[in-house]
Design goal:
four-stranded antiparallel sheet; Alpha-Beta Plaits; alpha+beta; Ribosomal Protein S5, domain 2; 11 helices
Length: about 375
């Protein structure tokens, strides 16, 4: 019996009828490219969120977050977004989407737990919605396709909660494979597996413990900058998003668009190219080249897109000075959160010593773990 099953039975006095888990996601390359229909390279984490379900005899919806010891409740007829319901809104959003599709959803008991940290850029929300829609699909025998489950997962956050989200994290949670990254074309939705034969080398995820600032206005400003630039570019050349334009195109509008907007776009165009280059490097097992691309991406996020923070900038600078640390960058939306590093196994202890130094200087106790590319959503138990 899984841990979530034990929690579910203790909370609801019933054995879950189904348990599903989905991985968190780390963005290896392709930061802020999805907003411009670009490319991303992502990995399913070896940390997962678990959702356990059992049907009720009434129309109540009961939610239990075992990690927090928190409970939320509503009914099928009273289903709506409530800010105070926080994590429960993710499952509520999935149920709302199923109801819109005329699915017959009964009262449900839901238990959630897992080890994907929330709020630090590792896509815990996408893991929860992906696990929830997969569990409901199986429990209610809805016969949804993988594409439909992804669509519902995205809509649960975008339409029900009102967040600006892309599809790539849900694609990764759905389709990730062990020992493999996914190169995702966010315009077409197509993805290609990229083998991670990292013998003697590890991907290390570090939670900086720097709180991600509530910077919605900052993100919106950057999106507006990119749209401003695209509007000007479209007067000169056909294209609907930044992925359709080149560095030469951006050079041609120097002095015509605000320089800040042009810098944002330079990051996106370069980053799309870096996704292609790191895929080639990984396939050639050229990990030094892949590491250099990681670090270049960080410099771009720091200087052009301007979404880094002093603490992670320090960690990047000191880490690349360490023999065996091949590259490192901020990951997620930025303004705090996590860094992803490519480190030779023989250098992991030296990298961790940098984290000790980081804590002494900044007062944040970082949490680091080796990321091993994990499988996507899966049924753990089906009664």
């Amino acid at each position: 019996m899984t841990v979530v099953s034990t929690h579910h039975r203790a909370e609801f006095d019933s054995v879950p009828e189904i348990v599903v888990s989905a991985p968190g996601t780390v963005n290896l390359m392709g930061a802020h490219t999805e907003e411009s229909e670009g490319m991303v390279l992502q990995v399913g984490l070896n940390r997962r969120m678990f959702v356990a379900l059992s049907r009720r005899k009434d129309q109540s919806l009961r939610f239990f977050a075992a990690d927090y010891g928190e409970r939320k409740r509503t009914t099928i007829s009273g289903l709506r977004y409530k800010r105070e319901d926080r994590w429960a809104n993710l499952v509520k959003g999935v149920i709302a989407q199923l109801l819109q599709r005329q699915a017959a959803v009964p009262g449900i008991n839901t238990t959630i737990c897992g080890d994907v940290p929330s709020g630090i850029g590792l896509a815990s929300s996408a893991a929860i919605t992906t696990a929830a829609v997969t569990a409901l699909d199986a429990l209610l025998e809805l016969g949804l396709s993988a594409a439909e489950r992804i669509e519902i997962s995205v809509a649960a956050e975008r339409d029900f909660i009102g967040r600006t989200v892309g599809t790539s994290e849900c694609v990764t949670a759905q389709h990730a494979e062990p020992g493999t990254a996914l190169s995702i074309d966010t315009r077409s939705g197509r993805f290609v597996p990229v083998g991670l034969d990292l013998s003697g080398i590890s991907l290390v995820v570090t939670d900086s413990r720097v709180p991600i600032s509530p910077a919605r206005a900052e993100y919106d400003e950057r999106l507006a900058d990119c749209r401003t630039c695209v509007d000007v570019l479209q007067e000169r050349k056909a294209g609907r998003a930044l992925r359709d334009f080149t560095l030469d195109d951006l050079d041609a509008v120097m002095g015509i668009v605000p320089e800040t907007a042009r810098r944002r776009c330079l990051h996106v165009v370069h980053e799309n190219q870096r996704v292609k280059e790191i895929v080639k490097a990984l396939r050639k097992r050229d990990y030094h080249a892949a590491g250099r691309l990681l670090t270049r991406s960080h410099v771009s996020l720091r200087d052009l897109y301007e979404v880094s923070c002093p603490e992670i900038d320090w960690l990047v600078k000191r880490s690349v000075e360490t023999r065996g640390v091949l590259g490192i960058r901020i990951t997620g939306n930025g303004f705090g959160g996590c860094a992803i590093a490519l480190v030779e196994d023989s250098a992991i202890d030296a990298y961790y010593s940098r984290l000790d130094e980081y804590e002494r200087i900044f007062g944040f106790h970082p949490d680091a773990f080796v990321c091993r590319a994990s499988a996507g959503v899966r049924v753990e138990d089906n009664a």
